[in-house]
Design goal:
Layout: H1 7-14, H2 20-29, H3 34-38, H4 40-51, H5 54-61, H6 80-104, H7 106-111, H8 123-148, H9 151-156, H10 177-182, H11 184-193, H12 198-215, H13 234-244, H14 258-262, H15 267-281
Organism: Hibiscus sabdariffa
Transmembrane segments: 35-59
Family: Belongs to the sterol desaturase family.
């Protein structure tokens, strides 16, 4: 809750007039508690999990209209009923784990001093903090993900997420309840190390989930703007991790490729891409089409 009752008081405190964005923020948040503002994350996550995957569901239903050439594993096809079942499973986890976790984790937000007041952060500050959050999350997630691919971690926890060997957008948050809790740690570390404004925190939670949905989409679209982000893995990169499945010791990072490159856990993927390139050049891929999509040639590549 802002410590001002009027915009004039806020302007006097800051020694200047409020910007348009700050005026909108004041009008919306002045009489709302910090806890209420923090709980907006529950609504944001619900909308992201429910709405963002829908265009990809439509694409899956319209593959015969030309989208099939962008499908990374085109031999795999899910019905609308199967995709909806995945959504229901995700929503069950949302109601039982994600939502309650958001409700009870507010003290940690107060502890690291995520602020809700004025002035608002500049665009540069928001972008810089988001970049830091993504880097910290990616590095931490890499090591936790590698642990989850150990014998115990995979059999007891992570195998649930790998039930989708050809991932779909709705399956991005599909996981064992304990994995949901464990992987909340990397997401929280960035804001804990470099705390900012609640708006930045909202954006971070939203963008991280949208990014996860994209990497689990199962489609490699040439017009995706994330292609311009340095060292970004994307859907093709993470799809290979799911394709290999439990045997995978490759492509552990959640967003970028640098950790896998530094620690040598992208060798299987690079070998796989090299083989596919040779097969495409020799016109030996069954049903290959223009646009970058391909059939995975054999199961033998999984052993790399």
């Amino acid at each position: 809750m802002l410590p001002f009752s009027t915009i004039e008081e806020a302007a006097t405190f800051m020694g200047r007039n409020l910007t348009v964005a700050e005026t909108l923020w004041f009008n919306y948040s002045a009489k709302k508690s910090d806890y209420y503002l923090y709980c907006h994350n529950i609504l944001f996550l619900f909308l992201i999990f429910s709405v963002v995957p829908l265009p990809l569901v439509l694409v899956e239903m319209m593959r015969s209209l030309g989208f099939d050439k962008y499908k990374i594993q085109p031999k795999v096809s899910l019905t609308l009923s199967e995709m909806f079942q995945c959504y229901k499973d995700v929503m069950r986890m949302f109601v039982l784990v994600v939502g309650p976790l958001q409700l009870v984790s507010y003290p940690s937000i107060k502890m690291i001093r995520i602020r809700t007041g004025l002035p608002l952060p500049s665009l540069w500050e928001i972008v810089a903090q988001l970049a830091v959050y993504f880097m910290i999350e990616d590095y931490t997630n890499y090591w936790i993900h590698r642990f989850l691919h150990g014998k115990w971690g995979y059999e007891k926890i992570h195998r649930v997420h790998h039930e989708y060997t050809a991932p779909i957008a709705f399956a991005a948050p599909y996981a064992h309840w304990l994995e949901v809790l464990i992987l909340g740690i990397p997401s929280f570390l960035g804001p804990a190390i470099a705390p900012g404004h609640m708006i930045t925190f909202w954006l971070w939670i939203a963008l991280r989930q949208i990014e996860a949905i994209e990497t689990h989409s199962g489609y490699d679209f040439p017009w995706t703007p994330t292609r311009f982000i340095p060292f970004y893995g994307g859907a093709d990169y993470h799809d290979y991790h799911h394709y290999v499945g439990g045997q995978s010791q490759s492509n552990f990072a959640s967003a970028f490729t640098y950790c896998d490159y530094i620690y040598g856990t992208d060798k299987g993927y690079r070998y796989h891409k090299k083989v596919l390139k040779k097969l495409k050049e020799g016109s030996k891929i069954d049903g290959a089409q223009n646009g970058g999509s391909y059939h995975y040639p054999t199961q033998d590549l999984k052993s790399e």
